[in-house]
Amino acid sequence: MKDLESYLDRSLPKFQEDLFALLRIPSVSTHPDSKADVRRAAEWVLNDLVSMGLSAELWETTGHPVIFAETPPVPGRPIALVYGHYDVQPPDPLGEWTSPPFDPTVRNGNVYARGATDDKGQMLTHVKSVQTWLNCRKSLPLQVKFLIEGEEEIGSDGLFGLIPQRKDRLACDVVVISDTSQFAPGQPAITYGLRGLVYFELTVSGPLQDLHSGTFGGAVMNPLIALSRLLHGLVDDKGTIQVPGFYDDVVPLRAQERAEFATLPFDEAAWMGRLGIPAVHGETGYTTLERRWARPTFDVHGLTGGYQGPGKKTVLPARGSAKFSFRLVPNQSPQKIEDALRDKLARDCPTGVRWELQAYHGNRGITVPFDSPYVAAASQAIELGFGKRPVLVREGGSIPIVNALHDHLHADTLLLGWGLDDDNTHSPNEKFCLADFAHGIRASLHLWDQLGRIER
Ligand code: BES
Ligand code: MN
Ligand code: MN
Q: Counting atoms of ligand 1 from 1, which one is nearest the CA of 195?
């Protein structure tokens, strides 16, 4: 592996430049105005794969394009499918960025840009490792396929539609995803569980237009008060969700899992300090790691309505809305929760206003088996790449397509995250540690070697 590793060392400046080029493209999948930029990012990925000698294709979807590429088949050896995403979250609030979000800037060994860690930087580690293998050895010890999409941050609708159709092209034995985090700096991890998500927008409307609150207040139900009441009814102050039946299908944490989480070196006081919060919060009877990784939750993401300008305005607003979601754990069903939520809102909504609920999309939580030869191979590769044996963790985020890949391709996923919890994903000053970019590529170089030793 010396040849590969020294090629990597020599190529690192070039690989970083490639990453910076991709980071300069503002591929914000949720902004309709960014459509052309999102496509530019897809084409950048396509060209990068083509220029290293792969046959790569751009697949149109109902939304943003998907890039597919593959190395030649290697009979008798497993097929690995690398999944990643080139789309990013909106960069706002812009004023809180130290350097502009689409002008990658290096400070203290980190590159700062939207998408640096989520997921352009992490995804590219596998592209660059395959490039390294092809340059040094002309071929890989197993077949590697790439599936890089542009709608992960908005629920992967387009890709969901493609998977059943393209099942044969996507056939694989194991899925590899680097879109999660290490446990701590210098302590890499393999993630065996992700939470699911079901996301809603609730609109409450009252009078036809905004009213003078002195003339009408007290006689007309205020939509923002009704909205606040409805939201308040969804969770109690212990963090227990009040939607009837919400916990019915929850798979409880196993005693052994709880014991293993408890052995991880998690410094809660330091974590609180970094976040600037005066206290932790959550379901009674669970630790912070359990609450973050393996328990379902309710969060409000945005509240809109009424007067938002400077000073005051005595208005009784005509309507208001809230975006909120529930994180789910195995085996909760997004549809069942939506149904129960609608029943509850219908019961709880005060008279004098109307409510409307839009359900955005849902995906289930997952856990993946960790007693497989693939996990053993990944563990070995990470130890060689990072110089430290990975720990097993679960994480609280969601990657919607993982379930579909499992259901249609019958392949389990290796979640090998190179990021850090304080990378500021989805928030201002997102960063990725450049040393971990290199470690990730090195781990990926070894991953192909280790997986290639498995016979099938
Ligand atoms: N990379 C994240 C998923 C993630 C976050 C995994 C934290 C583990 C820890 C992904 O890009 C993401 O942000 N997913 C969204 C999904 C949603 C928008 C459908 C999420 O979790 O909010
Ligand atoms: Mn991601
Ligand atoms: Mn994300």
A: 21
